[in-house]
Structure formats: structure tokens, C-alpha cells
Amino acid sequence: MNDNVMFALGLTVFAGLSTGIGSAIAFFAKRTDTKFLSLSLGFSAGVMIYVSMIEIFAKARDSLSLIYGYKTGYWLTAISFFMGILLIALIDKLIPAFENPHEMHKVEELNKPVNYDELKRMGLVSALAIGIHNFPEGFATFTSALSDPKLGISIAVAIAIHNIPEGIAVSVPLFYATGSRKKAFFWSFVSGLSEPLGAIIGFILLSSFVNLERFFGIPFAMVAGIMVFISLDELLPAAEKYGHHHLTIYGLLAGMLVMALSLLMFV
Hints:
By secondary structure, this protein is mainly α. It has helices at 5-17, 19-28, 34-68, 70-94, 116-147, 149-178, 181-191, 194-209, 212-215, 217-241, 245-264. It is globular, with a radius of gyration of 18 Å.
């Protein structure tokens, strides 16, 4: 497993820093391509839901069943799955809605009049909120890649797609706060570093307190819960906000189909 650590970390960095792509889009595009964003967010959600429920959950259950038997292993997997959901839900609850970095914005908002003093505070709090939200995402990407590099690639791409419009959402209020496009781009890009940081901290904690090989099924099941929650609570609602319901659903189904085909290729 140690041979995969650098590869897993590299994927996590790639996924996290894709927020910079969203920032660049916000500053260089004249209008937001809402159809593309609806389709891509739906696709990302489809990938994450399918791989969580079909692949990650099953692998976690099989791993724990080998240690504790099928019934107990299944119970532990289900409990861990919902613990992951509870963890990300609590994090999401602690971030006020108006400062939530997953609230989607459009490029056109850069031209709206702003209240500098009010948004300066919002921008600073948003920077912290971004880091808190991205911690479990980084852990999910890293853990998956550590267990199965091919699976990790799929999840990293899905997280990266998710982070592109998030970069737009982050750069807009930060631009309001600082009055500088360069600073907004820089801090939005740096905020993505919280994903590999979350991966490293999670790995250190797991390695320190448990036998990672023996109990890998528990954090793996939690990752499945985290990804399902992110998909249902963030990706799909964000895609719907861009106003293309059917494109969102088509993207969702396409993501599931592509994920299914990619998994079948390695059976």
C-alpha cells in the first residue's frame, strides 16, 4: 500500500487545485456556460454515486466481513457509511449558508455593485469554509486511490469536475472582498490545497491509531457516505440552479454509465 501513497497524493493535489481552473474561467470568460456546468456537475454526481454504492461500499463490506464475518462486517460497513454522511453533514451545518463555498455563482456577478466592508468579512470566512469543506473530499480521493489506483483516478476526476464550478463560486466573493482579480485567483487556487492536507492528516491519524491494513474497510465505507452526501446535497442542487434539469439528469446517467463501463473493463 505504501507504494501508492505518492500516486494517491498526486491525484488529491490534482483534484484540489482544479479550483484554480474555475477561478480562471470566472476571470477570463464573458459569460457562464450554464449548460456545460449542469451537464458536468450531473456527470460528476453520477460517477460518485455509482462508484460509492456499487464499488466502494462493496469493497468495504468484503474487507470487514473477512475479519468479523459477513453479518457483523455488513453492520460495521453500514454504520461507517452513515457516519461518513453524518461527518460531512455536520461540517456543512457549521458553515452559514451565505458563506458556504458550494453556493454556485456566475461569471456575470463580477460586474454587480458590492458592499466592500460586508463582503470583506464574507471573503475571509469563505476561505476558512472552503478548507473545512474540502478536507473530507481530499480524504475521499486519497483513501480511494490508496486502496485502488484505478478507482482513485475516477474519483479524482469527478472531484476535479466538481471543484471547477466551486472555483468560480469561491473567486467571485473573494474578488468582492479584495478588489483584486489576482488575489482572488491566488486564494481560490491555494484553497484547493486543503484537499491534499486533509488527505495527509487523515492518513497520519489512521496510521497512528489503527492497523490500516486490518481496518481499512471502516474509513473506506465512510468515504462512500461522504461522496454520496456531496453528490446529493451539493452537486445535483448546484447543477439544478443553472436551470437545465434534463441536462443534469442526462449527465448523471452518463456518469453512472461511464463509471460502470470503466469498472467492467477491469473485471
